[in-house]
Amino acid sequence: MSTDFRKWVCDACGYIYEEEKGDPDSGLAPGTKYEDIPNDWMCPLCGLTKSDLRLLPDAPSPSVKPVVRNKTTTGKCKGGDDYVVIIGAGIAAWSVAEEIRRNDPQTPVLMVTSCEGLSYPKPALSTALANGKSAGDLVDNDGLSKAEELNIDIRTETRVIKIDTKKKRLTTAKGGIQYHKLVIAIGAHQRELPINGNASSSIMRVNDLAAYRKFRKRLAENVQHVTILGGGLIGCEFAEDLISSGYKVSIIDPAEYPMANLLPEKTGHQLQQRLAEKGVSWLFKTTVDSVEQSGAHLRAILSDGVAIETDMVLSAAGLVANTQLAAKAGLPVNQGIIVDRQMRSLDADIYALGDCAEVEGKLFSYIEPIRRQAAVIASNLRNVEKSFELKSPLVRVKTPSYPLTICPPEGTQNFDFDTVVDESGDRTDYLVDHELVGFVLSGETSKQGSVLYKEIHG
Amino acid sequence: MSEAAIKIEDDLLPLDKLIEETQKVVDEDLKPLTVKIDLEGYYPKEVLKKLGPLGAFRQHLPAARADGETDMGAAIQAMATVSHECLSTGFSNWCQDTCGWYLQMAANPTVRENWLPKVSSGEVLAGTGMSNTMKAFAGIEELRLSGKRVEGGYIVNGTLPWVSNLGEDHVFGTLFALSDEPGKSVMTLLDCSMEGFSLRQSAHFVALEGTRTFACIFEDVFIPDDMVIDHDGAAFLKRARAGIVLLQFGMGVGIIQSCIDICRDVEPLLGHVNQYLDDRPDELQEELDDAVEACLALAEDPYDDSDEFFKEILQLRLAAGELAIRASQSAMLHTGAKGYLHTAPAQRKLRESYFIAIVTPATKHLRKELDAMAEAA
């Protein structure tokens, strides 16, 4: 009569005890059943005990679901003495790569980025919901394909830890990278507000696609009410996008009206009113002290003691340039990495542009100046001297219920205001000696932005 | 942290002096023992007892330094100096450093005040039973220890295989699950002389035999609150994980450099033919130098507990395991039959190097965790 011998596996080391064979070295004769193993028996491989043995199923274990992603991260290029290396893969970085290739098919270019290197229109992040687009829909190209199109190399998921300006070498956790010329395009991050509370770590900050993906994932998790910290451009755009998609929204801002750094008071109040009509609750002249878990919801407690029950807190308190890497390399930084009008840092082989760069005391965080900066860098890289023209950007605010086009005036001198109120929208001109130096257009009028911008900047 | 409660009498050697003195201990005390450690499993207690007073085990522990600084880079470099000669001893050095790190990062000041001076000076030798913990938090296996809250402490049961640098008079840090509170765990220091706790010698390994590696059996071990490092194990691990993995680079850097040096040593005689090999010493050296740069840069702030930072460390850790294997393979091929001798360093390095890729977090563990991180992003 055959006995049903079983097999047991040691949980710790994988040793298999077969009852049929026993463990003669430890005194267990062939045929010793699990029940008959003495309690002081030790696993011959790892020393654990009988109680660590688990029954080994006869059937083979269900096949492991294969990992879909690459086992080894793609991209092995280590740069070289002739390489232009671009750190970053945002609009600024891709713009530089495109500008270089416009006139120069040859120079080896390597893009190194800590993210996946996906190419997507960043301004679309704050309007995707209402446009019915998922985070994935925003991607117009993956980094590898785009790099291939441009005939450049790319290293994704590779963060630059250190720049050695003497050796012209970048340190990463995946090996060193040599450069001839370096372009820093590592952008900015959302300012982190000092907020306490046991749920303060749940505060979301969205400034790239990866963060936006998390934001959308969270939104789908039974979120009804979103509290936005900061009623600036990004806060207002997100507010309208959320409210148009059926979410309830509160905006908290320490100023007296929305977008106070870009809009005259009257226009600011108009925007406030239009968004309020759509359902946005505004709380001005206050800040959030803490965010606490409150059952399945969150509770934001304001500096004036008011508590708001909410499901998500989204912080849009302004951008802070990523300067740490450059500062550690000994490059001068202020609000951003300091560059001259050629977009060169103190080290003539290192350029910077976009949200992380500061030109003559100013940061240029909008798309239009970034494209011009990229062209300047590409030109200077092929030794055709070119300078970045400091002109205020044309800013379009994507709040459909009250669209705005703004050309903020340069400098800090006092302006004359001239506001024309019209049914189709308001127009505020900023004047110095009767000359137009900037404007704010709202509603239908905002469409005249490009024409007016040309009047000022040609 | 009430660091002031710990009295620190002397000051530390400057880094170059520390390395010089460590090298002296390696040359005079460790070198004559290396083959014995490797082939007979001899535990070089006397070497560890000499490294402690040099300050090799407390560079990264502000609570054990008069200046209150954290110099994880110095701890790594001292460990690399030891690992260059013998990875077995280098691993014991890591165990000691890491247990000190647990105490440094303890939420409970009492356990730190009671034990950090002894562990950081090498007066008490210490291990770390966190392999299971790290694998459990990466979803690879279950926590093997489980505890119950009782008055004044916890009662812990379970078994841990293969915990190193242990002995009757040693301590080690480990983490156990709370059986009554699913998902909760506790980080503790364990004194190997505690009642209900026993060590068992088990299997033999192909290398690193001189590390006093035992299976740990917990039978109703009472752990008083004074020994608890953090009642919230998950929070502790998040705080401490960067330092734990960073310190391992001391082992990796040491063995990789020693393999490169073995290749270089035979260059005058064999360079004419070795030039046909892959992974030549200069190539390996460049990769190692880059990795060291990265490691020292990351080691500047081991208190960063963000996922982004940990991801960098895991990437570099993965690279170190892969480079260690390539370097030892190269040492074998560069030395040829001479390296194939029973007592040759090259063949020992070959066996030792796999430890870097196998010890937790192992290559497959790292790839899984990095993959999960990419997925979550």
| Form type of chain A | globular
Largest sheet descriptor of chain B: 8 strands, mixed
What is the class of the largest domain in chain B in the CATH system?
Mainly Alpha
Rg estimate of chain A, integer Å: 30 Å
What is the helical fraction of chain B, as a range of percent? Answer: 40-55%
Unreliable segments of 5+ consecutive residues of chain B: 1-5
Structural account:
The complex is a heterodimer of chains A (458) and B (377). Chain A has 458 residues and is of the alpha/beta class. Chain A has helices at residues 91-103, 143-150, 209-219, 233-244, 265-278, 324-328, 367-381, 449-457; strands at residues 7-10, 16-18, 53-55, 84-87, 109-112, 153-155, 160-164, 169-172, 177-178, 181-184, 188-190, 204-205, 225-229, 248-253, 281-284, 288-294, 297-302, 307-310, 312-315, 319-321, 337-339, 350-352, 357-359, 362-363, 395-397, 404-407, 416-422, 425-432, 435-442. A five-stranded parallel beta sheet of chain A has the order 6-5-4-10-22. In chain A, a hairpin with a 4-residue loop joins strand 8 and strand 9. In chain A, helix 1 (91-103) packs across helix 7. With 377 residues, chain B is of the alpha+beta class. Chain B folds into three domains: 3-124, Acyl-CoA dehydrogenase/oxidase, N-terminal domain (Butyryl-Coa Dehydrogenase, subunit A, domain 1, Orthogonal Bundle); 129-233, Butyryl-CoA Dehydrogenase, subunit A, domain 2 (Beta Barrel); 235-376, Butyryl-CoA Dehydrogenase, subunit A, domain 3, CATH 1.20.140. In chain B, strands 1, 2, 3, 4, 5, 6, 7 and 8 form an eight-stranded mixed beta sheet that branches. In chain B, strand 4 and strand 5 form a beta hairpin. In chain B, helix 1 runs parallel beside helix 4. The longest helix of chain B is centred in the middle third of the chain and has 33 residues, at 233-265. Chain B is globular. Chain B starts with 14 loop residues before the first helix and ends with a helix. At the A-B interface, strand 7 and strand 8 of A face strand 3, strand 7, helix 10, helix 11 and helix 13 of B.
